[in-house]
């Protein structure tokens, strides 16, 4: 998962809030060229453990977005503008 601008989304496969974020993530990747690593946590215990380590009790659920470069996170479904600002480190 090493990339210059490491952006991670922890999600659940059947999570309706996570599903609403898919078009925003796709748009973000196309517009900015930044890749969001998507990590499924509901069906993968290792990924769920990783999310707990990164989350540190901030969100406690999905979708949970984490920017490894800035340490900034987003909890839950957000609008596109908020997602883009997070991805750009603003």
Describe the structure.
There is one protein chain. By secondary structure, the chain is an alpha+beta fold. It has one domain: Glutaredoxin (3-Layer(aba) Sandwich), CATH 3.40.30.10. The chain is built from 3 helices and 4 strands, in the order E-H-E-H-E-E-H. The protein has a 4-stranded mixed beta sheet, sandwiched between helices. A hairpin with a 5-residue loop joins strand 3 (64-67) and strand 4 (73-75).
Outline of the structure:
The chain has helices at residues 16-32, 45-55, 80-87, and strands spanning 7-11, 36-40, 64-67, 73-75. By secondary structure, the protein is α+β, with helices and mostly antiparallel strands. Strand 1, helix 1 (16-32) and strand 2 (36-40) form a beta-alpha-beta unit.
SSE arrangement:
Elements: E1 7-11, H1 16-32, E2 36-40, H2 45-55, E3 64-67, E4 73-75, H3 80-87
Parallel strand pairs: 1-2
Antiparallel strand pairs: 1-3, 3-4
Order of helices and strands: EHEHEEH
How many separate structural domains?
A: 1
Task: Report strand %.
Answer: 15-25%
Q: What CATH architecture label applies?
A: 3-Layer(aba) Sandwich
For the largest beta sheet, what order do the strands appear in spatially?
Answer: 2-1-3-4
- Looking at the structure, what is the overall shape? globular
Count of discrete alpha- or pi-helical segments spanning 4 or more residues: 3
Oligomer: single chain
Query: What profile does the largest beta sheet have?
Result: 4 strands, mixed
What is the number of beta strands? 4
Q: Indicate the low-confidence ranges by residue numbers.
A: none
CATH C-level category: Alpha Beta
